[in-house]
Amino acid sequence: MADHFAGVYLPPVRLPDDSAVAHGANPPHQQGVVFAQEVTMLRLSPGGLLLALQIGCLGDALSAASVPPQQSNMRIDNIPLFTIGDDPSEPLHRVIGAVLTGDVLIVAEESTHSLRFYDRTTGQLIRAVGQKGEGPGDYGNLDLLQAVGDRLYTFDSWHRRVTIRDSAGEVERTVRVQPWAGYNVAEVEGIFPDGSMLVSGSVFGWADRPKIQRDEHRLARYDADGNFIGTLGKYLGYEYYDSPESKRIYPYRRETFVVVVGDKYHIVDTKDSSIPAFDIAGKPVHELPPDVPTEPTRLTRAGRDSLPDLDGIDRDDLPRYYPFYGRTRAVGDALWVPHYGGLVPGGGSAWSVYSQDGDLVGQVTASERLWVLAVDGDIVAVLTLDELGVETVQLRRIIEQP
């Protein structure tokens, strides 16, 4: 998202949060930023940062249904169908999302401000659209990729602009999204099926004393042309250290993600096992049944020792428990909720998958640390990171377990 202070844009520089990466919370480059004049990290607003909504569903076993579906246990195969980004001549850096549609894989790459179209059979690059700039189809800070019907929507927080493209990537139109009321930040969290937008408003500023802070956000709905319709409700954002001199994130903190799935949205508090869902008008409709133990797990001594010393903050005010969840995404008509730390002995990843109607339809596991970007049938696009920090995107199969 774009951060603003007194009406002045402060360009963010993304940095990895190594302590969080070690525990598998989120993709490393999606952890935090520093402001140009700062040397400490600040996580961007979690509702909209790196939110990727994709076409497709996880086959019959993980698709929405009119009756509660039978729950399935599935795993992501260890063997990739192909890998992109491992060629030094065509590396990937700061991948924020992907879409699987038709015969192409579309990867949104923040570092090049572009959408990259690959043949999903061979992995060959077909074309790239977008570049750094200010004109139509250009980006200053590519934050969101979402497919709605046969259209591709992107949000650029630098220019506060939504770009609508056809399935081939050609620009059809752009829409400006301006903050309302007294807010100086407006971030598009997602697009509803009718083209209207879920927008989070907040105020960016500096604290007058050191403290652990959670900013208040208000949700609003904008129409397809970027006009304000009305407010939907409030929520508290992610937890961070705030002081007059710096802002900083730290491991095991509470985070909040706002995720649009079809004509509903969910507010995921990573330290609350319950996940409420709301309709397009902001009315509560249901809560997702927890698929994790509802009692929090206390941090180990090593975990507590890994927490930083923060000026003006008592260590007892820092986290004592692990989060329940990691970075939550919408994938087609399903909500993928990663378990913090995974379920596979010795490492790995695990997700609970919920239908648009709020039914738990299954669990998916992987034997290694992966980040799911898109799913179409039994094919999944995942982001991987090696020990040298090299990003790759792979297509793999999802296999149903007995």
Task: Give a structural overview.
This protein is mainly β and 402 residues long. It has helices at 18-21, 301-305, and strands at residues 4-5, 8-9, 12-15, 32-35, 52-53, 72-76, 82-84, 95-101, 104-109, 114-119, 125-129, 142-148, 151-156, 161-166, 171-176, 185-191, 197-202, 211-222, 228-242, 247-248, 256-261, 264-269, 275-279, 284-288, 329-331, 334-338, 349-355, 360-366, 371-376, 379-385, 391-400. Helices cover 2% and strands 45% of the residues. Strands 6, 7, 25, 26, 27, 28, 29, 30 and 31 form a nine-stranded mixed β-sheet that branches. The termini are far apart. The chain is globular, with a radius of gyration of 20 Å. Mean pLDDT is 84; it is low at 1-25 and 28-68. The chain contains two helices and 31 strands. It has a single domain (4-400), classed as TolB, C-terminal domain (Neuraminidase), CATH 2.120.10. The longest helix is centred in the C-terminal third of the chain and has 5 residues, at 301-305.
Kindly summarize this structure in a few lines:
The chain has two helices and 31 strands.
